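Duplicate of #3305? Posting structure anyway:
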């Protein structure tokens, strides 16, 4: 397995882990009690997305500057990792907003 495949596998594993954390198997009572865990998981996910984007930006700048140690393949892979992680984060945000709207529309 190449390094690129390993890195992509790692990103996919992070996405799966975040999805499992968000979906969780906990009851509503347990989820409410674990709001600190949710906020820390969300913060970690946002930081990971930011790290991927910064890394892609740094590689792009080095490639544009003519760094002989930076290949176009590395730049493309890093940009794809940043894009996939951002899309996953956007999907998670959309699910959270939908859940919030559904809760707000419940009659009490």
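Output from current build:
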């Amino acid at each position: 397995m190449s390094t690129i495949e390993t890195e992509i596998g790692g990103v996919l594993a992070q996405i799966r882990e975040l999805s499992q954390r968000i979906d969780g198997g906990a009851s509503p009572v347990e989820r409410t009690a674990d709001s600190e865990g949710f906020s820390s998981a969300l913060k970690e996910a946002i930081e990971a997305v930011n790290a991927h984007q910064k890394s892609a930006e740094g590689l792009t700048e080095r490639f544009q500057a003519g760094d002989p140690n930076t290949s176009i393949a590395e730049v493309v892979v890093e940009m794809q990792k940043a894009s996939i992680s951002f899309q996953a984060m956007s999907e998670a945000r959309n699910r959270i907003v939908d859940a919030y709207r559904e809760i707000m529309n419940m009659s009490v």
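Confirmed duplicate; merging threads. The chain is about 85% helix and 0% strand. Residues 32 and 38 are 9 Å apart (CA to CA).
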